[in-house]
Amino acid sequence: MTPEQQRITIAEACGWKKTTQDVIGFTGDVYAERGWLSPLGIYQRASLNVPPDYLNDLNAMHEAEKSLNSSQQQQYLDQLDEHGVPLMGVGEINNTSEFWLVHATAAQRAEAFLRTIGKWID
C-alpha cells in the first residue's frame, strides 16, 4: 500500500468520511469542494492536509489504537511482534484495554493496525 492509501484507510476506519460540500463563492456561484468530515463532524477542506498523518504522527496513531477492541489489541501486538518491533513490558491485554508498547514507529504501528483490521493490501 502506498503511504496515502494507508493514511486514507486508517482515517476511514477511525470514522473520517470523504465529502463534498457546496460552497458559495463571492460571485454567488455554487461549487463543490472536496474535503473530509472528521468523526466529530467537523468539516476539513482537502487543502488543510487532513485526515491526520498516521504514518508520521505517534499521537495520531495513539488515537487510532484507541479504536481497537480488546481482542484486536492482542492481534495488534502480535502483528507488531511478527514484524520485528521490539516489545518491552507487554503482558496479556487486560479488560480495561490498557496496553503499551515501546519503540514502534508511527509507520510500523500503522501497518500493524491495518493488518489487524484486515485492510492491509500487499
Defining key terms:
alpha+beta, single chain, 4 helices, 122 residues
Mean pLDDT: 78
Strand content: 15-25%
Q: H/E order of the elements?
A: HEEEHHH
Task: Write down the Rg.
Answer: 17 Å
Poorly predicted segments: 93-100
The strand count comes to 3
What is the structural class?
alpha+beta
Number of H- or I-type helical stretches: 4
Apparent shape? elongated
Note down, in words, how this protein is organized:
- With 122 residues, this protein is an alpha+beta fold.
- Strand 2 and strand 3 (43-45) form a beta hairpin.
- Strands 1-2-3 form a three-stranded antiparallel sheet, with no helix packed on it.
- The chain contains four helices and three strands, in the order H-E-E-E-H-H-H.
- Helix 1 crosses helix 4 (106-116) and helix 3 crosses helix 4 (106-116).
- 35% of the residues lie in helices and 16% in strands.
